[in-house]
Design a protein that fits this description.
Blueprint (H helix, E strand, L loop, with lengths): L12 H7 L4 H9 L7 H42 L4 H11 L12 H16 L2 H9 L2 H15 L6 H21 L12 H10 L2 H10 L1 H8 L10 H14 L14 H6 L1 H27 L6 H17 L5 H22 L13 H19 L13 H18 L6 H13 L4 E5 H13 L1 H4 L6 H9 L13 E5 L23 H19 L16 H9 L4 H19 L10 H59 L15 E3 L12 E5 H6 L3 E4 L9 E9 L2 E8 L7 E6 H9 L4 E3 L3 E4 H12 L3
Helix pairs in contact: 3-7, 3-26, 4-26, 5-22, 6-8, 7-9, 7-20, 8-15, 8-19, 10-26, 12-14, 14-17, 15-16, 16-17, 16-18, 17-18, 23-25, 23-26, 24-25
Pfam families: RasGAP, RasGAP_C
Organism: Dimargaris cristalligena
GO molecular function: GTPase activator activity
């Protein structure tokens, strides 16, 4: 607190004024949260709170949908490539269907209370999640981020949750700087921490900034779809060859095949095309830079604050670093993690209606490369053809350094966070909108790492985890229901917190508290009675505080009557205590009321402006939600088409490997038997399907394999020894299993006696079972 604000309030006005602003924020927050006031400001604030909640809920839905789209997009690409059969498609399609569960039972009340306590602790003490993010693997981080960014700190426009989330970031970044061994990888490597920072930029405020600042420049490129700004000399050389081919001329005489990059760069025709394109690229990148520099005030506070922490931590960790090194690290976050992904893939960031065509897409990629190199202070050593763009780097080096410095010039929030935390303790309705699996998954991760997170048996986190016991297993998609989880703390008193302890000072007297309460009550009355006939609320002509109290006390509204009587009595007590003087019209109280009401007026204007801005954000997020849902619908339509075309594919009985026996099954039944093929050990070894074998050479002639497909895409591999009816080994697998192994570069499938080559086994199954 400022030294001028220290010391107890006295009865004289000067000392009283010096203390005024220490609780100014509290008045405003109380006024905002007063449910009994129904003026324009309170209605606008209620609408704004509702809008922020809708944005937070919708953002979480989009995050989950994006995960689904990524998963199915990758999976269906594999299935198309391998001609996935009917049953596997049914399995994926069923995962797309949302099932309604009528009779699911939520955890019992005591367990819900334990979870409410645990998540209050996680939210109000960000150190636990900060530590957890450093312990989880890359495969676990997306699930954790879903809970952290969109649930635990999910209200993206509520100051307390945002400040707590940023506190967590500070802890995570501090640990990252302490433990990093290679400065070049700081914030650039694909780690849980970098993934977390990228996800943070995708929240509502970041999306709104991108749409407002760079979407116009992106759309201006898209409108010129025929504009080709390719400057890679080899690609331009190929363009020249293709032009001749289109004219029916053999290009080999004029433009020989197989030239090097250096030769292409020196080619006169290539240079004539590339040089003006480079000039245009630099002009376009310059326009991007201009709007980014000009609208620095539009960058969300949280993103600027993270940049500030990066600068501060870098200076402490690397005191000998030059300013350009520090700027490079800030650029690694601001451009690499935030701006450039949106420039390269604007459709994914809801900045354009459709995915860009080839030429605009390449232009955007080159612009992003140019901006990234400027931000990184990097050379074009990996792509020497881009050296021609160095004039852009040279011209803008000083400007980008100034921008990064200015970007970091934001205040801290610790004082307001203290007030936010105090207000949270006085609330009775803190809650999270959370799914059961989010609770269970977070619980499971905490239990898994509890020795590192809470080594002491007496720590609050350890007590919570011990009370909860083992984490329940994750529920199927159809049972993963959402609920409203009330939050509370077992270790703090939620109401009647003593104001004298709020700032750590013990000099606030009872008269101070009475003065604050009286002022807050007058604010409520003035806001509630502004529409009363005959009410004089013009500060230029002095407010009549006694008159306001009398009008309220004699009104027909019982709530106003109680407040009027109460504030009249409080004003009398302040007069008797010498804090205010009736003879000067309570001048001290009038001054503070005047400033407070001006402050509330500016709040009203800010609220209206924020509503307008967030309405646009909400519409954009809803549009993106529709796009994601349409993507999933297109997957369903695709699967239905394949299902219609895949009927009878199991009837294929030909196409086995040479030398293989085909098992026909029994005749005379209405249902055809599942396809079955037999293969000798010697044959599979010769074809390379068996990569390694533990079977002695003398026995290999007596070993054979039978592969049955009981359902499309599902296989049973049986290993037989001639003369025995029962198999000596049996293994079930699906085509999907093999495809994932192949994608993960797992080359061998272990069958105990033999190891099969995954790629060659896939070829075998494709040839014999998946013929259309």
């Amino acid at each position: 607190m400022d030294p001028a604000h220290r010391g107890s309030y006295a009865t004289n006005g000067e000392t009283r004024r010096s203390k005024r602003y220490s609780v100014n924020a509290l008045y405003s927050m109380v006024a905002e949260q007063d449910v009994e006031v129904e003026d324009d400001l309170s209605k606008a604030q209620r609408r704004l709170r509702e809008l922020k909640t809708k944005i937070s809920v919708q953002s979480k839905k989009n995050f989950l949908l994006e995960k689904d789209v990524r998963f199915f997009d990758a999976r269906i690409a594999l299935l198309i490539q391998n001609r996935m059969a009917l049953e596997e498609m049914r399995e994926i399609n069923s995962a797309l269907e949302d099932t309604v569960v009528d009779d699911y039972v939520f955890p019992e009340d005591r367990r819900m209370q334990l979870y409410g306590n645990l998540f209050f602790l996680l939210q109000s003490e960000p150190k636990h999640i900060a530590a957890l993010t450093r312990l989880v693997t890359l495969s676990e981080i997306d699930t954790l981020l879903q809970s952290v960014m969109f649930t635990i700190f999910g209200n993206q426009y509520e100051s307390r949750e945002e400040h707590l989330l940023l506190t967590m970031f500070q802890l995570v970044l501090s640990a990252q700087f302490e433990t990093v061994t290679e400065s070049g990888s700081l914030l650039r490597a694909n780690t849980p921490v970098s993934r977390m920072m990228t996800t943070y930029t995708r929240r509502g405020p970041g999306q709104a900034y991108l749409k407002k600042v760079i979407s116009h420049e992106i759309n201006s490129i898209l409108t010129r779809g025929d504009l080709n700004l390719e400057i890679n000399p080899l690609k331009v050389y190929d363009e020249l060859r293709q032009e001749l081919e289109a004219q029916g001329i053999d290009p080999d005489d004029t433009y020989p095949r197989g030239i090097t990059m250096e030769t292409a760069m020196q080619h006169p025709q290539v240079q004539a095309i590339v040089q003006p394109r480079a000039v245009q690229l630099m002009e376009i990148a310059g326009r991007f830079l201009h709007v980014i520099f000009e609208q620095i005030d539009q960058v969300p506070y949280g993103i600027r604050w993270i940049c500030k922490q990066i600068r501060s931590l870098t200076k402490r960790r690397y005191p000998n670093w030059q300013e350009f090194n520090i700027s490079s690290l800030i650029g690694g976050f601001f451009f690499l993690r935030f701006l450039n992904p949106a420039i390269v893939t604007p459709h994914a960031y809801m900045l354009v209606e459709e995915s860009p065509n080839k030429n605009p897409r390449r232009t955007l990629t080159l612009v992003a490369k140019l901006l990234q190199n400027l931000a990184n202070k990097a050379s074009f050593s990996k792509e020497p053809y881009m050296m021609m763009l160095n004039p852009f780097i040279d011209r803008n080096n000083d400007r980008i350094n100034r921008f990064f410095n200015d970007l970091c010039e934001v205040g801290d929030f610790y004082e307001s966070l203290e007030m936010d935390q105090y207000m949270a303790l006085t609330k009775k309705d803190l809650s999270l909108n959370i799914t059961l699996n989010e609770m269970y998954n977070t619980h499971a991760l905490l239990v898994q790492h509890q020795e590192a997170l809470a080594p002491s048996k007496d720590s609050h986190l350890r007590i919570c985890l011990d009370d909860l016991g083992p984490a329940p297993v994750a529920l199927p998609r159809s049972e993963n229901l959402a609920l409203e989880l009330p939050l509370f703390s077992r270790w703090e008193t939620p109401i009647n917190v003593d104001l004298t302890t709020l700032s750590g000072e013990s000099t606030v007297t009872q008269n101070d508290i009475l003065f604050m309460d009286t002022k807050a009550l007058f604010i409520q009355l003035i806001r509630s009675m502004a529409h009363f006939p005959g009410m004089n609320l013009d500060f230029a002509n002095r407010l009549d505080l006694d008159g306001i109290a009398d009008v309220a006390a004699t009104s027909s509204d019982p709530i106003l009557v109680r407040k009027g009587i109460k504030v009249r009595e409080m004003l009398r007590e302040l007069t008797e205590a010498g804090v205010v003087d009736r003879r000067d019209g309570y001048q001290l109280m009038l001054e503070e009321l005047g400033q407070e009401l001006v402050h509330l007026g500016s709040i009203r204007d800010t609220v209206y402006a924020e509503i307008t801005s967030l309405d646009a954000v909400f519409k954009t997020i809803c549009d993106h939600n529709q796009y994601l849902n349409s993507q999933l619908e297109s997957y369903k339509a695709y699967l239905q088409n394949v299902r219609r075309g895949a009927g009878g594919s199991h009837g294929a009985s030909s196409g086995g490997m040479a030398g293989a026996e085909h098992g026909h099954g029994h005749h005379g039944k209405k249902t055809a038997p599942p396809p079955s093929f037999k293969f000798t050990h010697l044959l599979l070894e010769k074809e390379g399907v068996i990569a390694e074998s533990n079977v002695p050479d003398a026995r290999k002639a007596n070993i054979y394999f039978q592969i049955i497909s009981p359902h499309p895409g599902s296989f049973v591999i049986l290993l037989f020894f001639k003369g025995r009816e029962s198999p000596i080994l049996e293994m079930e697998l699906t085509l999907d299993d093999l495809l994932e192994k192949q994608q993960d570069n797992i080359q061998l499938l272990d069958l105990e006696y033999v190891q099969l080559n995954v790629g060659r086994l896939l070829n075998l199954l494709n040839r014999n079972f998946l013929r259309r």
